[in-house]
Amino acid sequence: MSTFARSKECNRVFIATFISAAFFWTLLLSVSPQLHARIHADSNRGDHTCAVTLITTGSYDHAAHPPLVRAPQPSVQFTKIAALSSTWVQPLFLSAHIFAHAPPARG
Predict the structure, then answer these.
(1) 55: DSSP letter
(2) pLDDT, tens digit, for every residue of 6-42?
(3) CB 105: neighbour CB atoms within 10 A?
(4) To which H or E segment does residue 20 belong?
(5) Domain-by-domain residue ranges, the chain?
């Protein structure tokens, strides 16, 4: 393995470790309001927004999500549905003579 490849791998490990540590630090601050207050003096205000408050609330938008299912709407019928009448149709396979084209039977 070349020196450049090892250097590149070390950079990836360092970046992954740093990002993981930052995320775990944010999680720690989100479960401990006292520690979050020591980091941010304005953490108790309603308009305070940081990564910790985003993780605590669970979303970027603080508005409630619209419901996925709406209330049923009554349907209005303006016309009558016509009564259906049945019609007999001769089956197609009876007139097609499918078995008339079979190979000859041994006998």
Answers:
(1) H
(2) 778 888 999 999 999 999 998 888 888 888 888 887 7
(3) 5
(4) helix 3-31
(5) 1-62
